[in-house]
Amino acid sequence: MRLIPRSAGLAALLAGTLLAGAAAAQDTNSQGERLPHVDGNAPATGTAASTQGAATGEPVETEAANAPDQEPAFAGQTRAPQPTAMPEVSTQTVAEGLPNLWALEFLPDGRMLVTAKEGRLMILPAMGQEGEPIEVAGVPEVDSREQGGLLDVALGPDFASDGMIYFTFAEPRGAEGNGTSLARGKLAMTDGAAALEDVAVIFQQTPSYEGNKHFGSRIVFDDEGKLFLGVGERSDDPIRDQAQDLASGLGKVFRINADGTIPEDNPFVDQDGAQDAIWSYGHRNIQSAALDADGRLWTIEHGPRGGDELNGPEAGKNYGWPEVTYGIEYGGSPVNQGVTSREGTEQPAYYWDPVIGPSGMALYQGEEFPEWQNAFLVGGLVTQGLVVLTMNGEGRVETESRVPLDARIRDVKVGPDGAVYAVTETRGGGSTILRLTKA
């Protein structure tokens, strides 16, 4: 693989290399004709351009909400204004013809470690280097049906010395069904070959369930080397109600030591009947997570139809799902009679109606885009581009802007060169990796 110019096909898809100013508003037409399950659906077709030409200082989203009678709990909780200055962005394809990727992580030498949904782990050459992808041997079997597969990957906190990587996958569990599991192994690379050694599953989401949706998941290490793992609640009704059950691992954020043991200061360690790995609960399907500049965890989860939400999960807190949520069921009926607030549950810091379809999230810290310094960059499966969020000192969204890429974005990372790398996916097809720089 080598650095390549955009092919004619991709050039037509992207409709130009420069994405500037107000043109950075993504067209997301009516959700009414989308398939029943938003996670993984492309935008609907139509003539209305919901965000095209939105002015700076005004919300980028102008389409009607799915739940127009629902009111935000505080000003700025949804449809934040665009910033007054937005950078012009140039895009370049650095890899194409790849299988359906799910996650990307940079190795210290600049090479890219990527997961493919079907169960493949690969190492791609660094920018400016030629070569073919290196298949990493030793990946355990995955259940790749529907939303399952080999999912997130992260370098361990001591990777430079021990070579350990961590990854999540939909683990087949025989007659019990499947579930999201966290594994680790040593990445051994010699003479153009690579393999995982001493692979071990160090944590399993339980109970298992025979389903094919809402596995999550994202891995984030904090500054102390503790691991946060966000997972889904498996989608189906009634099992999704276990997001509220502390005896169940569905719909949770977990906090785990790097060796798979449980930190003694987790909020439910001494509570009878509760899983001691739980950090927070009441989540739907987390597929975006990152630390902010102060080391605080933030997650974004897929909501129902009009209910994607940004949260800063805190120890022991309940984030509501499915008893409290914005948005409506995919079929159009209220979720739990349309309750959007209740004592004992936390409000999202921000929510989207219509949804963005979040997947992947990175804190931007670099020199390429000074306008984005300390902003969150979020992949949009439904909005088909990047969503850029700046935060204020009170943990609220200050501005939201969008960079249209005309492709479903599964993951986003900031490279060692300060450029932004976005992993695209095609429904039922393959992936490309795009490099975004200042125009």
Describe this structure in words.
- With 439 residues, the chain is an all-beta fold.
- It has a domain at 85-108 and 215-438: 6 Propeller (Neuraminidase), CATH 2.120.10.30.
- Helices cover 3% and strands 35% of the residues.
- It contains 2 helices and 25 strands.
- It has helices at residues 8-14, 159-162; strands at 18-19, 89-98, 101-106, 112-116, 120-124, 134-137, 150-155, 164-172, 178-190, 193-204, 218-221, 227-230, 252-256, 278-281, 286-291, 297-301, 308-311, 350-352, 358-363, 376-380, 385-391, 397-404, 408-414, 420-425, 431-438.
- The strands form 5 sheets. Strands 3-4-5-6-10-9-8-7 form an 8-stranded mixed beta sheet, with no helix packed on it. A 5-stranded antiparallel beta sheet has the order 1-2-25-24-23, with no helix packed on it.
- The chain is globular, with a radius of gyration of 20 Å.
Strand order of the largest sheet: 3-4-5-6-10-9-8-7
Low-confidence stretches: 5-52
**Cα shape:** globular
Characterize the quaternary organization of these chains: single chain
Pfam families: GSDH
Signal peptide: 1-25
Keywords: Signal
Protein name: PQQ-dependent sugar dehydrogenase
Describe, in short, the structure shown.
The protein is mainly beta and 439 residues long.
Key phrases:
439 residues, mainly beta, Neuraminidase, 5-stranded antiparallel sheet, 2 helices, Quinoprot_gluc/sorb_DH_b-prop, 6-blade_b-propeller_TolB-like, signal, PQQ-dependent sugar dehydrogenase
